[in-house]
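testing teh design pipeline on a random one, pls ignore if ur not involved
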């Protein structure tokens, strides 16, 4: 009887832990679904031409074998045009290979433009993520400030806890002003930079 009495609380604890773990996994899964929805929304906003250029950039231009292929083509082009007179063939592009230079310059222009187009949209997405991170950080900071404030009120209201003045808690109850923090950071940074450059 005693063994059964002891095992029941353990089974209840295990079931409770499993339920808590399931709730936690549900929360994580919901967060992942939200992040996927944000990503899909950003992808849908991109136009058809943008998507094509990004696919070409990621799947073709941004691969190591593309570099190897370009080097191989250029090398074969040069060797063919140098070896043609030996075998009595007509050169396609005699040295200094002006046609090859023009082709390489044109491909470099297209590649640079495609990369810039891709980076431009990625930069906008990064800005959105940065703003989202900032908003979430500010929200968390406000919540933490509120929790500290409530804990301080609870401490003052509890008769069993000795009342004392906590300067740090009083300061931490106030939410930080982002504009003031940025201004202070900028001022301190400029002071350090000007201080380092002063001897020179």
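output:
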């Amino acid at each position: 009887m005693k063994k059964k009495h002891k095992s029941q609380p353990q089974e209840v604890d295990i079931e409770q832990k499993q339920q808590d773990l399931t709730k936690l996994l549900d929360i994580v899964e919901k967060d992942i679904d939200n992040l996927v929805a944000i990503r899909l929304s950003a992808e849908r906003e991109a136009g058809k031409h943008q998507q094509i250029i990004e696919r070409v950039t990621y799947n073709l231009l941004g691969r190591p074998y593309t570099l190897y292929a370009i080097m191989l083509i250029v090398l074969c082009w040069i060797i063919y045009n140098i070896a043609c007179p030996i075998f009595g063939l007509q050169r396609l592009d005699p040295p200094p290979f002006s046609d090859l230079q023009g082709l390489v310059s044109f491909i470099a222009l297209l590649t640079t433009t495609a990369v810039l187009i891709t980076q431009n949209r990625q930069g906008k997405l990064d800005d959105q993520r940065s703003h989202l991170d900032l908003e979430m950080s500010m929200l968390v900071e406000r919540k933490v400030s509120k929790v500290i404030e409530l804990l301080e009120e609870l401490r003052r209201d509890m008769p069993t806890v000795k009342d004392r003045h906590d300067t740090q808690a009083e300061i931490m109850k106030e939410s930080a002003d982002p504009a003031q923090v940025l201004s202070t950071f900028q001022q301190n940074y400029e002071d350090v930079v000007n201080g380092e450059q002063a001897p020179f």
